[in-house]
Structure formats: C-alpha cells, structure tokens
Amino acid sequence: MMSLAKIYFEGQGVTRNEIEARKWIEKAAEKGVVKAMLNLAGIYNQGVGIDRNDIKAKEWTEKAAQKGNAEAMYNLGMIHFLGQGTVQSGPMAESWFQKSADKDHTAAMVMLGYIYAEGQGVPKDYQKAKTWYGKAARHGDIEGMYNLGELYYYGYGGPQNYSKAREWYLKSASLGNAEAMRQIGGLYYLGRGVAKDYAKAKEWFKRAMERGNTEAMINLAVMYYEGEGMPIDESKAKLLLEKACSLGSPKACDHLKVLKECENKK
Fold first, then answer.
1. For the residues of the chain, what is the DSSP string, one character each?
2. Average pLDDT over residues 19-30
3. Of 154 and 48, which is predicted with more confidence?
C-alpha cells in the first residue's frame, strides 16, 4: 500500500495524484502501519493536498505513538508543547518527550533540556536540563553539545566552567555549528578558559562568518575597527557590518549607522 502511495505521490510512471496517494496511505494507516500513520499525520499537519487539520494530525500521531514509535512520541510531545489540535500542556509535552527520549530519540532529549532550562511548561530546573542536554550530546547531537556548552559557560546547573564549555563547543563546531564556532572565538578573544589569543579568535569568528553567522561578522568588524591582533582596517570593518546588516542583523545595522556618523564627522 505504501509503495502504491509513493508511486502516486511522486508520479512514478503515472500522473502525480496526491488524492490517490493519500487514499493508499489512509488504507495502510487504518491497518496499523506506523509509517503510514506518521505520513498521514504529516499530511494533515502540513495540509498537503487537503485542508490543514491539526486535530486529525494529533489523532494519527497519537495512534503511532501508542504503538511505541519514538518519532511519533516526539511529535506528540511537540503537539502538546505548541498546543496544535489540543490544549497546550507542558506536563503532557514533558511526558511524551520523556517516553521518546527513553527510546534514544535525541531531539526529544534536546527538547527536555530546553523546557527545563527555560521553564517552558514545567518548573525551571538547570540540573535536569544539563542531564538531558548531556545525554543528547553523548549521543552525538549537535544542538545537545552546543547547549551543554552554554550551561557550562554561564554556570547554569553547576559551577561556571569555561574549559568544559570549550570542550562541548568544539564538538558541536566539528559538526558544523556556526554559533559554537563563534563562542569558541569569544573564549579566545576574552581569554576565558584559554590564553587570550586574537589570532585564534579571528580564525574561529571567520569560520562562523563563512557559515552566515552575523554575530561573528560583527565580532570580526570590531576586531578590524579596533586593530585587535591586526592592523586597523575601518574599510573591512564597514564591509563586514554591511554584510551582516544585509542579512537582517539589527545590531549590525546599528553599528553601521554609528560608524557612518563617525566617518561624517571626520
């Protein structure tokens, strides 16, 4: 049934037909095929070829979750967290995230870390946040690694530890997290947990910048403007701020405005 659904949905040898595809997905879902239940929930959630229906999306997600599917459990947690097709409920979200996380679903672990760190629908608890971010991080999750680094950096859920923060930022950065790269640059720039090193700060800010991180562009602009670890270069500073501003950074736009005002006074 799912094979037929794929043929119609993708138009493999037949005219693409979302209605026919959905019909076969529904038949499979009604027969208890978990993948079909998840697909049908997604169709209702996104309104693919049909009016969006959050209640139906929740209904099919719940059926898949009750069959023990970790992804469905996570999705159901998000449904309760966001209040889609149901009353928003922190405890219900927590419960389903927990069930999913217990099946090694790393996104669920990250969400548990988040709701505890931010007190979203549950009492704020940095120790629990650290536990769940730590579990996600040790499962290789890029966000779990970064968020665990943040807790160590700011001293939430335990003593402030810049060395530990750097350790987890490095792991997250190795997987391509631009914000983790920027934070490593900040550690070298400020000399936190490492010797102050403008060359290394510039290197890490540049890596983050190359991945579109506007804060790193601002950091580099400041270094060029102040001549920190390099000759003063106001032109490069201005170019970096213009790029960050064009990418939608209000902070960069504000800095650029101040820089232009200073130029006009010269």
1. -HHHHHHHHHTSSS---HHHHHHHHHHHHHTT-HHHHHHHHHHHHHTSSS---HHHHHHHHHHHHTTT-HHHHHHHHHHHHHTSSS---HHHHHHHHHHHHTTT-HHHHHHHHHHHHHTSSS---HHHHHHHHHHHHHTT-HHHHHHHHHHHHHTTTS---HHHHHHHHHHHHHTT-HHHHHHHHHHHHHTSSS---HHHHHHHHHHHHHTT-HHHHHHHHHHHHHTSSS---HHHHHHHHHHHHHTT-HHHHHHHHHHHHHHHH-
2. 80
3. 154
